[in-house]
Design a protein that fits this description.
7-stranded mixed beta sheet, globular, 24 strands, FAD/NAD(P)-binding domain, 2 domains, about 500 residues, 6-stranded mixed beta sheet, alpha+beta
């Protein structure tokens, strides 16, 4: 049996590095493993706010972090989903909730009954049957009903928080748990010329940090996985049209909404992320269809509140690492690749990467088949995530700008094309292995972009149509009534988790 891993070195801090450190502090609690995180004092974090998806709630819970303490420390608000404005057509909007729609009836997905009713000439909006949608529309927030049979139970929430404050929170948490923190710049990486493994990293202050397993959290730079180990990238720009970003913080002048807003602009889309103390704003755009100055002007013409900081411009390297695990180097976060933040996948992919690492945790032999499986799973996951993001652009009916006309005609993968055509046929949702988004998310996109199936699951005919209509009416009414009884998002925060001061 090969020797066990004893020393893990994380290169890079920020949200990625400290999520890795915090998670490892729990994973190694009963193991004879030390963890050192090396963080450059010269590299800052964008810090315009961070939108998440619900698995971040479970991540923090598994660490034993108190939710109220976390929310206060990070100026967080709650997120029920994403509102998409002007994506399908100008002037239209739809909501992507963290929730299913209704409940299965006789083992048939709920939306087939809605489709049946619509095909019979009755007008129904699927969003009326998601409690997350109903709450968001009213600016309300409530935690889910504990009864699993209740339609009011089948939804989740995530957070908007300050990414810098979240990293700081996890840093304190991790150090208390025994993670060694070194603030220094890495100036060199020593690679064994025979094995190709990383032996150590050299710091500018002269120290040499040795390790068995190195985790690259150094961002786009990929200090270990790319600069030292020469693992290349697969370009994703063919599937994702936006390659630039602008970000700015503004004062919060209205009560924060319990959702992220993504608004389609002339050459991309704009985000609005409300925190307790400010608003995060940004514009993701294609440099092929507008200039940086025009993009900045377009964004600033629509943001509310006084600017808190200067506008910042970024390149978006739309690419994924060919492999995230090479020899004794494991890449996380931006070092592993970048997908635009349209569906807030960034932190989720960090969690997913850590989960794969733990599932196939190595010894010093670093089994090639284990590494190959992790890389296969990761690539499959990103391919399907790229499909989901591509869908947002491909299904648009906008033709008012050159950018949106391009999107209508842009290439998509065969897997995505197949999924679209199957849904168009009779409303069935094809799910592949390692999907980041569940069926309800795909359904929200199909319905939001007005893709109406020609048929529905034949088993949905087993219940008389008048009974279906009665059940739909009752469900819609119960959700409206429950939402009226809920607190506003601001009231919920004020009562349970209001931050004490601006950070």
């Amino acid at each position: 049996m090969s020797e066990a891993i004893r020393k893990i070195v994380i290169v890079g801090g920020g949200t990625t590095g400290w999520m890795a450190a915090a998670s490892l502090s729990r994973f190694i609690a009963d193991k004879e493993i030390s963890v050192t995180l090396i963080e450059s004092p010269n590299i800052g974090t964008v810090g315009v706010g961070e939108a998440t998806i619900p698995n971040i709630v479970g991540f923090n819970k598994d660490l034993g972090i108190d939710e109220v303490e976390l929310i206060k420390a990070t100026q967080a608000t709650f997120k029920l989903g994403i509102e998409f404005e002007n994506w399908h057509k100008k002037g239209e909007s739809f909501f992507h909730p963290f929730a299913d729609y209704g409940l299965k009836i006789q083992n048939v997905d709920f939306h087939h009954y809605v489709n049946r009713a619509k095909l019979s000439g009755n007008d129904h909006n699927l969003q009326d049957y998601s409690f997350a949608c109903v709450l968001a529309k009213q600016g309300k927030f409530a935690q889910a009903n504990s009864d699993p049979q209740s339609p009011l139970a089948d939804y989740s929430y995530a957070y908007h928080f300050d990414a810098v404050l979240y990293a700081n929170f996890l840093q304190k948490f991790s150090v208390k748990k025994g993670i060694e923190h070194i603030s220094a710049n890495v100036c060199d990486v020593q690679i064994n010329q025979t094995s190709g493994f990383i032996e150590s990293v050299q710091l500018e202050d002269g120290r040499k940090i040795e390790g068995d397993l190195f985790i690259d959290c150094s961002g786009f730079k990929g200090l270990l996985i790319d600069e030292a180990m020469k693992v290349g990238l697969d370009d994703l720009s063919k599937w994702l049209p936006c390659n630039k970003a602008i970000a700015v913080q503004t004062e919060l002048i209205t009560e924060p909404k319990p959702y992220t807003r993504a608004t389609a602009n002339n050459a991309g889309w704009q985000w609005s992320i409300p925190l307790q103390h400010r608003m995060g704003n940004g514009y993701i755009y294609s440099s092929q269809f507008t200039s940086a100055q025009n993009a900045e002007d377009e964004m600033l013409s629509t943001v509310d509140g006084e600017r808190i900081n200067n506008v910042r411009h970024f390149d978006l390297p739309l690419a994924k690492r060919k492999v995230i695990w090479h020899k004794n180097c494991f890449a996380l976060g931006l070092a592993a690749g970048f997908l635009e933040p349209l569906e807030s996948l960034g932190l989720s992919l960090i969690q997913s990467g850590l989960s794969k690492l733990y599932t196939f945790f190595p010894d010093k032999s670093f089994n090639e088949h284990d590494m190959a499986e992790v890389n296969r799973l990761h690539n499959a996951e990103l391919d399907r995530a790229v499909d989901f993001l591509s869908l947002h652009y491909k299904l648009t009916k906008r033709d008012d700008t050159e950018f949106w006309r391009y999107c209508q005609n842009m290439p998509i993968s065969d897997a995505l094309r197949h999924k679209i055509e199957v849904y168009k046929s009779q409303g069935q949702i094809v799910m592949y292995d390692n999907e980041s988004f569940e069926e309800a998310s795909w359904l929200s996109m199909f319905t939001g972009f007005d893709i109406n199936p020609q048929r529905f699951d034949v088993r949905a005919k087993n219940i008389p149509l008048d009974v279906v209509e009665k059940n739909l009416a009752q469900m819609k009414s119960s959700m409206i009534t429950a939402a009226k009884q809920a607190m506003t998002h601001q009231q919920f925060i004020d009562k349970h988790c209001r931050a004490q001061s601006d950070r």
